[in-house]
Write a structure and sequence with these properties.
Blueprint lengths: L3 H8 L12 H14 L4 E2 L5 E2 L2 H15 L7 H14 L1
Antiparallel strand pairs: 1-2
Keywords: Coiled coil
Length: 89
């Protein structure tokens, strides 16, 4: 488990001062903050709502993997682009 001081920083609780112990109230505040910032649902490209946590994680992973994956270029398309570039000169 994380140290009290680390949890105190993460909670961003204004009342958490040096020397303050991690109390039941502190942990309840931290949990409430985590729930507030948690993504409970999202909508896919077909406007369907996704609520299952594992499905959300998979959807977000796939979205960013697709976003940052370089598309494959066929040999014919590459040749076409090279021909167009030679016309620029």
């Amino acid at each position: 488990m994380l140290e009290c001081s680390t949890l105190r920083r993460r909670s961003r609780a204004e009342w958490a001062e040096k020397g303050e112990t991690c109390s039941k109230y502190f942990f309840a505040t931290l949990k409430a903050k985590q729930l507030q910032e948690r993504m409970n649902s999202l909508r896919d490209e077909e406007d369907r709502e996704i609520r299952d946590e594992e499905t959300i994680l998979n959807y977000v992973y796939k979205y960013y993997a697709d976003l940052y994956t370089q598309p494959a270029i066929s040999a014919a398309h590459r040749q076409e682009q090279e021909e167009e570039l030679t016309l620029i000169d």
